[in-house]
Amino acid sequence: MNGSVFSLCLEASLQGQAILNEKGEFLFVNRAFCEQVGYTKQEIFLLSIESFVIAEANDDLMKKEPMIQRGIQQKQLEKLIIHGNGYLQSTLFTITDVSNDAQVYFHVQLDKIVTTFNDGDYSLLESRIHERDEVRLPKKILDGIKDAIMTIRLDGQFLYVNEAAATILKTEKEELVSSDFWSCLKQNNDEILLGKFYQLLAGEDYKQFELYRKNQNEWFDVRAYRSDDQVTFYFINISNRKQMEKELREKEMNYRTLVEESPETISVHDGKEFIYINPAGKKLLGIKSFKNGEIKILDVIALQDQTRVRENIRLLLTGKKKMTNSVCTLTSMDGKKFEAEATTTLITFQGKPAFRTILKDISERKKLDDLIRKSDKLSVVAQLAAGVAHEIRNPLTTVKGFLQLFQKEQQFNPFYVSLVLEELVRVESIIYEYLTLAKPNVESVFKKIDIHVLIDQILTLTKAQSNMNNVTLEFEYEQVPVIYGLEKQLKQVFINLLRNSIEAVTESGIIHVRILNHPDSQVCIQVEDNGCGIPYERIERLGEPFYSTKEKGTGLGLMVCYKIIEHHNGVLNIHSEEGLGTKMEVILPASS
What we know:
The protein is an alpha+beta fold. It has five domains: 3-112, PAS domain (Beta-Lactamase, 2-Layer Sandwich); 145-241, Beta-Lactamase; 265-363, Beta-Lactamase, CATH 3.30.450; 376-438, Helix Hairpins (Orthogonal Bundle); 447-589, Heat Shock Protein 90, CATH 3.30.565.10. A hairpin with a 5-residue loop joins β14 (323-331) and β15. The protein is elongated.
């Protein structure tokens, strides 16, 4: 007789039959086994025998001893299993070790539990049922929950009350069994709870409300469910949450008072529209009534400052700056123009990124600055004169010395002549920079400029200098729109920036020149080197006259660059780290 015949015999049995391996995994089950546990064969083959058996409260057999073990013969275990239809079922397992020398197998047979009792005498059956965990399990769970739970019949009789619920009702748990819900509520003056119960009696299935217990100084989130002839109340203690909400409201009121009564203009915007403006801001901008989204940012900012404002917003969003400061010309709602200092930081407002801008009217300060500036003109002229004298005196001393030498010897040395010419070229360069600084905008008509062609020409001009210094120029570009500007002035800017980079890198240095598209219809030209870099504390002073990081520099070249870019409504950003190199970005609008 072969194995297939045995399989057919087991399949034909009216009792549940199964074969397990040593891990408790099913190798075979018959149809009766599947029907009794409520699972299909495909589902059972994915389980082990212990995966759907429930450990009873007073039975640690599952923890101490596995259900299957070598050598057991017809061992009977009464277990509670999870039926496939979702309920708990008592089942008797009979397990026998049927292993051979080669393989380990266990035979499992299922038997139904039958409790005998006399006709009309149900006490034994009731006690047996109440001892089973399918009855005790929900009660054990409810008793262990810290939140208050009570179940009441529609006539007011308490069916179940846990310790937390008895505390809320201010009555001992044992006393509640003999009392009714109505009298308990009236005794405690629980008008709200009583009213919600009446609504459930009227036919509603579910109510949710908050309840404050004054004597206990506690808040509860109450959920009430009606099912057939009973109502279950579930009390969740939310006192901590209520206290936190109260503290948050108090803090919010304090902060709101600080903002509302501040003499400074405080506004919140999303980069396009104002979301909030305090009373001082409304007065400054001439706003009589304000609604969220009514006023655009660019409606109050002068055209020449809009590029800088957009760039500041981009720097904040990308994390390159934590705070930006700038001076802008603003236009109030009544058409009045004034200058204001704007300090902007990135914040989170209503769960979204936003910007907090503090505006300070500096019109009066500007007037005072003008008076101070007029009084300081003489000292400025003296400073400029000292700068000119200092910068030109050295090369002129060299020229004067060689001319005196020529006069004395009555002959010209070609080498000395070349040195004289170099010094004169240096004098000419210094004078040119001063003239450019004095009148940077001699041309006034902006023309279309193909920035790719312009940069290509500049790279050709500086190629000789880069080759002499053994510096590699790498050029990358995107297709960008044309810009409007003055070609000669922009050439001067990029030549200055490239020369600065060439002088900053050591031998075998690399300079990357990039033309990139930039947000808000702008073009970005980057000059990045791997040179010595600039200390952080020096970056802020770049562009000041007579301040330079180079040994023989005047600082005027970069100052001229700033002035030209400002004239083109552009922005010059310098990012540098000492020892790692410098990246300079010129951002120009791609429109007239």
